[in-house]
Amino acid sequence: MRFDLTDLRLCLLVAEAGSITGGAERAHLTLASASARIRGLEDTLGIALFMRHRQGVLPTPAGRALLAHARRVLAQIEQMRGELGEYAAGLKGNVRIASNTVAMSEFLPDLLGAFLAEHPNVEIALREQTSPAVVQAVLEGAADIGVVSDWIELTGLETVPFRQDRLVIVTPPGHALTKRESVALVDVLDAEFIGLPEQSALAEHLDGHAKRAGRPLRYRLRLRDFDSLCRAVAAGAALGIVPLSAARRSAATLGIGIVPLSDPWALRTLVLCVRERDALPVYARQLLDRLQGPASPATVATTNTADTNKNGTT
């Protein structure tokens, strides 16, 4: 029984996308070609790998077994490619990172950009997911490195601290809430908010805590990033909840107020997680070492609520 690496990669991409169309796009194949490859693999094996339904496809039990083996095989290929790349110029390495919203928006861009500038033969596939989904992706081999909040269960993974992240409420200039030293989420659930898209990891995180506190957050508008959110808040539209680093960046030009959330979950340590560091491709290990390096002063989020006054300055 012989397997083609392109077919294995295609099966993984189809499973991640939830459809053959989405998998074909990610694999840069036509739909007809992708469908023919999957049918051919199923015919060769004599089993169905995916269950077709109106919304897309789901892997069968046999498909899940194939996917588990495919991830291991492709990870070993990637490790070999990276190690040989140390000796043979031109070989490409690929590192897959799954990250929560805050790390992806606030901490990773500068670090990843600098790493890529130093490693021209490396590509990085960065995907935003909730912390539980990130952990699952790393455990299953769908991601090489994960960045998550430390409140999540991390059994079975190797972890190291990455950055600290404090969530704060941002308010329009002069808002009455800025007189408070801090505030609990439950005390502002009657207010209206500007938020991130529903599918963002941070939005799901906040919505979950709001519902556990008694009722959902009420959104007047959802915007795609922290800077846009803060601009809408500064115009007087509503409140927002963002990382302290993003709030300070916007406060310098927009004059928004910053009020720390007092809930314990609002102060989080972000951690890097991998399944097994020594089994990572060489480029992934190099990137992990870079991410473990010390933070620059601009990216350190203070844990002292008294350091942030009603004008958002320190």
From TrEMBL:
Asked if the keyword Transcription regulation belongs to this entry, the reply reads yes
Which PROSITE patterns does the annotation name? Answer: HTH_LYSR
Record-linked InterPro entries: HTH-type_LysR_regulators, LysR_HTH_N, LysR_subst-bd, WH-like_DNA-bd_sf, WH_DNA-bd_sf
Arranged from A to Z, the UniProt key words for this protein are: DNA-binding, Transcription, Transcription regulation
**Amino acid composition bias (Low complexity), ranges on this chain:** 298-314
Molecular-function GO terms, alphabetical: DNA binding; DNA-binding transcription factor activity
Question: In its keyword annotation, does this UniProt entry include Zinc?
Answer: no
GO CC terms? cytosol
Domain HTH lysR-type, residue spans: 3-60
State the similarity comment: Belongs to the LysR transcriptional regulatory family.
What is this protein called in UniProt?
LysR family transcriptional regulator
Species, as recorded: Pandoraea pneumonica
